[in-house]
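Morning - adenosine-5'-triphosphate inputs below, output right after.
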Amino acid sequence: MQPARLAAYDIACRRGDRVLVRALSFDLKPGEALHLAGPNGIGKSSVIRILAGLLRPAWGHVEREGALALSDERLALDAHRPLGEALAFWQRIDGGEATRADFGLENLRDVPVGYLSTGQRKRAGLARLAASGAQIWLLDEPLNGLDTHWGAAAQAAIEAHRAMGGIAVIASHQPLGLQRLRTISLLEHLP
Ligand SMILES: Nc1ncnc2c1ncn2[C@@H]1O[C@H](COP(=O)(O)OP(=O)(O)OP(=O)(O)O)[C@@H](O)[C@H]1O
């Protein structure tokens, strides 16, 4: 894996006519993880979209070195295809290697993506992320909809990614059980 880096310099986030977050800076190197914390509506998803390059910061800038993959509530898999086919299709496009992370999807490979339950959809999204080969993972509420077992499996997959030199940014209002985790509360970055 090429050395990755993700850094934010004095970022401000505006949505509509409201500034949500200001003066947010960090610098993440291989193996590091950041938890963006804060209550509903504070701007966690908006910051993730800025880091992904999908939303322009009102101020400041982001520097990325390495490929980036995003997992959020929008499942990036074709709803009408069987899950196994949908994952294989994107794995060919994304060009990643087969992942060892187990999201318990083996028995669901013939089920159309659109029929998956909330937790199964979340696991499918994480499986696509894990198979992408991207060094930088952006995860927006990765534990939402997951039971205790699969919540722990998702966090184990993040730890395995870090152990291989990957970077993870996790936006979540829930506590996380990751090692050496840096936490930034967006409550400390209100305008
Ligand atoms: N396109 C938009 N235009 C204007 N306001 C928006 C837009 N998208 C989101 N917002 C507002 O920005 C604020 C932050 O939303 P965001 O989804 O980033 O918060 P969050 O911290 O991720 O919340 P949650 O924990 O509920 O997912 C909310 O008040 C939301 O209504």
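Note: Residues 15-16, 20, 38, 40-46, 173 surround adenosine-5'-triphosphate (CB under 6 Å).

O.
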